[in-house]
Design brief:
Elements lengths: L3 H40 L6 H4 L11 H10 L11 E4 L2 E3 L15 H11 L1 H11 L20 H21 L3 H17 L6 H22 L6 H12 L3 H25 L1 H6 L12 H13 L1 H7 L1 H34 L4 H18 L12 H34 L28 E4 L5 E5 L15 E2 L3 E2 L9 E2 L2 E2 L2 H14 L26
Parallel strand pairs: 2-8
Antiparallel strand pairs: 1-2, 3-4, 4-7, 5-6
Helix pairs in contact: 1-14, 3-5, 3-6, 4-6, 6-7, 6-8, 7-8, 7-9, 8-16, 9-16, 10-14, 12-13, 14-15, 14-16, 15-16
């Protein structure tokens, strides 16, 4: 008969073996779950590798990407881009180019400052204009580098767009309509030809460039003198971008890169440490470092522990595959949301579907991302909202350009958008938020009201009142109002009232009074009935 202490030792050994084996079992179970999910995605036709998702080299003409990147790097910093299409009241925006004096936070009048900067940067601007005239703008990126992929061109592209748009408005301000048109075309070419880079950060920069172009386009529409051919060219350019297709490719690429990131983190403690939040405040090799370490531990014990080798091993064996699985499922939820929006079932439906799917994933894995946050549904939802914003803006500007062409030919605005089909539009643009036709009606003064129902999907009759929420406060962008209303040009009185309020809230050096507005190209100033 065995002695009691022998039985206790055996029980202790078995218990230790069980405790040591549980992480190993869980590790391989979750690893198998990740592979099973990948097989499931593959069976449904999903592309899962970086190689599959890397864009092919361009074949449709000379590629101006390198020349553009170099030219943009030669541009000086644009300290004060022209604040175009600034909302000054609900449904009203200031026409910046028509302001004789345009004060900013840094100067009492932007125009002479900008004119001097343009003269200094003329050679670089000419090189940018030449580069964007190339039929292709595709940068040679090694996507296999994953998170280490350098993207120095992104800041240069946005800077180039800001310069071109600002010079467009300066030319409008100074009555040079031909030069303004050429710079607007250059801005349009940059926005149209850059955008097929399948990375979310690249897509966000592309969206920012298109919003810069949108403001410049709106400003240009307030000037008379454009021909139908010019407006048709702008309309065709705005009709061509497929932001949702680009986003779909980008979410898929980010998912493929995510697999590579997790593999790198599991293979390298240094790579893992480089991505962990709350870096140490000092080296533990000296007294001050030890004190900093202790203070940080008291403030953020979990953050300190996750940086240690023990924390790394715990994550690697207990949570890494679950985090990878959850990240892949969140990416898939975002992909499905984009596909729903692409099929014109509406962004409101897509966002609800995403929220439902993301909530289901979170409830199935309540402790995922606790140790090492990788990707959150909140981040993905914010990207989806930006996609909804730019797609709403794109469809509104296409409709507004078609209305302006009708007005140019007929001398009046159309009574309904259907009157634009098929001469000016192939079909009535649908509201990307609810899948119904964009809302449009004539006002009593002959101007028009054009709007989308906005993020909530509720038609408030074209109410441009700003949305106020506890988390974000008052949304100050016109497309995030109760309804996304295409703005009308503000009157001088509305601009004065807004500037007075801005001066009260943000005191700055200002000119006194409002000089007379300059004539627009063609000899007329913008009016409140302009489209």
């Amino acid at each position: 008969m065995k002695q009691p202490h022998t039985i206790l030792r055996l029980a202790a050994v078995l218990l230790l073996a069980f405790l040591a084996g549980c992480p190993v079992v869980k590790h391989y179970q979750l690893k198998a779950a990740v592979e099973a999910y990948r097989r499931q995605l593959r069976a449904h036709g999903e592309k899962l590798t970086i190689a599959e998702l890397t864009p092919p080299p361009p074949t449709n003409g000379p590629n101006g990407a390198s020349a553009l990147s170099f030219a943009a790097s030669q541009l000086g910093s644009l300290q004060n881009p022209v604040p175009a299409m600034t909302a000054v009241a609900p449904g009203r925006a200031r026409v910046a180019w028509a302001e004789a004096v345009l004060p900013t936070e840094d100067t009492t009048n932007l125009w002479p400052v900008l004119a001097a900067a343009v003269e200094t940067n003329q050679a670089a601007l000419d090189a940018v204009r030449a580069a964007v005239a190339s039929p292709v703008l595709q940068f040679d990126l090694d996507y296999s580098l994953g998170p280490a992929l350098p993207l120095p061109h992104l800041a240069s592209l946005k800077k180039a767009a800001q310069w071109l748009a600002s010079v467009t408005l300066l030319n409008l301000h100074e009555g040079r309509s031909s030069e303004a048109w050429e710079d607007l075309r250059a801005t349009t070419a940059l926005a149209a030809r850059y955008g097929d880079e399948p990375l979310l950060i690249s897509q966000l920069v592309s969206i920012a460039i298109n919003q810069i172009l949108l403001s410049a386009t709106w400003e240009a529409l307030q000037a008379p003198g454009w021909t139908d051919d010019q407006l048709a060219e702008l309309q065709a350019a705005w009709a061509s971008p497929d932001f949702l297709r680009r986003a779909e490719a980008s979410f898929a690429m980010e998912r493929a890169m995510g697999r590579q990131i997790f593999a790198q983190w599991r293979d390298s403690y240094d790579d893992y440490r480089s991505m962990v939040d709350f870096p140490l405040n000092g080296a533990a090799a000296n007294t001050s470092g030890l004190l900093d370490y202790g203070e940080e531990f008291l403030k953020h014990p979990a953050a300190v522990l996750r940086r240690t080798p023990i924390g790394y091993l715990a994550w690697r064996w207990l949570w890494s595959y679950e985090d990878e699985l959850v990240a892949a499922q969140h990416y898939q939820a975002a992909l499905e949301a984009v596909r729903t929006a692409r099929s014109d079932l509406a962004f409101t439906t897509a966002l609800k579907n995403f929220d439902t799917a993301a909530d289901r994933v979170s409830k199935s894995h309540p402790h995922a991302d606790d140790w090492l946050p990788f990707i959150t549904p909140e981040l993905m939802r914010s990207v989806l909202l930006k996609l909804a914003d730019i797609e709403t803006e794109r469809r509104l500007v296409v409709a507004a350009l078609a209305v302006r062409r009708y007005q140019l030919r007929q001398g009046r605005n159309p009574g309904e958008l259907r009157a634009l089909v098929p001469e000016f539009l192939a079909a009535v643009p649908l509201d990307p938020m609810d899948g119904q036709p964009l809302r449009y009606r004539l006002n009593a003064d002959g101007s028009f009201l054009l709007y989308s129902v906005g993020e909530d999907g509720v038609d408030n009759g074209g109410d441009p009142s700003p949305v106020v929420s506890a988390s974000t406060g008052t949304m100050k962008t016109w497309w995030r109002a109760r309804d996304a209303v295409w703005p009308r040009p503000a009157s001088a009185a509305e601009v004065d009232a807004w500037e007075t309020e801005q001066a009260r809230q943000h005191p700055r050096a200002r000119t006194v009074g409002r000089p007379a507005l300059p004539a627009a190209p063609g000899g007329a100033a913008p009016t409140n009935s302009s489209p």
